[in-house]
Amino acid sequence: MTLPLRIGTRRSKLALAQSGMMQRAIGRALGIAEAEIETAVPLVEIVTTGDRVQDRRLMELGGKALFTKEIEEALLDGRIDIAIHSMKDVPAEQPEGLCIAAIPEREDARDAFISRDFDSFDALPFGARLGTASLRRQAQALALRPDLKVEMLRGNIDTRLRRAAEGDFDAILLAVSGMTRLGVTEHIREKLPLDAFLPAPGQGALAIQTRAEDIDAPWVAALNHAPTAVAVAAERGAMTALEGSCRTAVGAYAVIDGDTLRLTTEMLSPDGSARWRRAGELFQPTEADARALGEKLGAEVHAFAGDQEVDPASLDG
Ligand SMILES: NCc1[nH]cc(CCC(=O)O)c1CC(=O)O
User: Fold this and answer.
1) Which atom of ligand 1 approaches the CA of 107 most closely?
2) CATH number corresponding to 111-191
3) Is residue 195 among the annotated active site residues?
4) Residue from 51, 81, 89, 168 carrying the catalytic annotation
5) Would you say the C-alpha torsion 12, 218, 225, 105 has a positive or negative sign?
6) Tag placement on the chain: N or C end, fewer CB within 10 Å?
7) In what helix (H) or strand (E) does residue 241 lie, and over which residues does it extend?
8) What is the ipTM of this complex?
9) Residue of 107, 111, 153, 203 best suited for mutating to test ligand 1, as the one with most atoms within 8 Å of CB
């Protein structure tokens, strides 16, 4: 592969932090001196539709693909060579000509509880206001505490933290991983248990996207973390079977424990009053085995849950 290797990135602080981490990791994997990395593996900033419409309801506008479309066009046009995404935001299908070449080791997959006034989720008073834009977090919170008032909270992580600090909400929920990458973990009051707040498929993991012909590039193997890639394959298999989107409350979390993969996946009704969950294990699975387990368990959940998709017009702004 010829240098420079250009990394396309969104301009949000989180995207820049993630791309910067991977820029250094790729530079080191290629044996490039620290001082040369910026020129050999440069960052190219790209504004996506999703970034321009932050204040509007994404669901009405086409969901996850809004954050990836312009970046994928730049990859296909050859303006950039690599894109770093939060795995959670990557749609089930890759566009023709592109691939996820590597999945680095996952960060903490848990959700974080953030509040100016309360130490923990359990300490929230009756009827407390919880800010989130995630249907999954809404449903999981209401499953434990149907008295909570869930209100829409959008914007980047800094905006959400500021609104929590100003008392616009009694608490908000964010992914621990994003906060860690931004260096704002001092706002975390509690890391929520994986069982009650089963994460979104791929939460805490990054996806390194390239053109399909670069799937075996020399730096790819150095960045891929096989246990994470297998776990994420299982979660995304479940997501596909559950037709997971930001209009459905879907969780999936897998870990590799020694030689064993353990996957749990669930769907909830938006108000948290109903919850369908399946779990399973595999010994020494390949990525394909893991994906197949995810698809099987996801299909079982889907068969019981039916269609839990929410009409965007029925959501509170
Ligand atoms: N949907 C927004 C989004 N996409 C990825 C992350 C960071 C978490 C991750 O790396 O999975 C976040 C913010 C959040 O959920 O708190």
Assistant:
1) 10
2) 3.40.190.10
3) no
4) 89
5) negative
6) C
7) helix 226-241
8) 0.93
9) 203
What per-residue confidence (pLDDT) applies to 155?
A: 86
- Report how far ligand 1's centroid is from the alpha carbon of 205 (Å): 9
CA of 156 to the centre of ligand 1 (A): 9
How far is it, in rounded angstroms, from Cα 152 to Cα 131?
A: 6
Residue 316 has pLDDT above 50, yes or no: no
**Burial profile 163-175: b = 16 or more Cβ within 10 angstroms, e = fewer:** bbeeeebbbbbbb
pLDDT in tens, 152-186: 998 889 999 999 999 999 999 999 999 999 999 99
Asked whether the whole model's pTM tops 0.80, one would answer yes
- Tell me if 111-191 shares its fold with 226-305: no
Chain center to CA of 199: 9
Please list the residues that pair with 84 across neighbouring strands: 208
Q: Which atom of ligand 1 is nearest to the CA of 111?
A: 16
CATH dotted code for 1-104+205-224: 3.40.190.10
Whether residue 223 contacts residue 25, with contact meaning beta carbons closer than 8 Å, is answered with yes
**Pocket (CB within 6 angstroms of ligand 1):** 86, 88-89, 174-175, 177-178, 203-204
- Topology (CATH) of 226-305: Double Stranded RNA Binding Domain (3.30.160)
Going from N- to C-terminal start, the domains of the chain cover 1-104+205-224, 111-191, 226-305
Of 211 and 310, the one with more pLDDT = 211
DSSP β-bridge partners for residue 207: 85
What are the φ/ψ torsions at residue 285 (nearest 5 degrees)? Answer: -80, 150
pLDDT, tens digit, 9 for 90 and up, residues 269-314: 999 999 999 999 999 999 999 999 999 999 999 999 887 777 655 5
Nearest CA to ligand 1 atom 5: 86
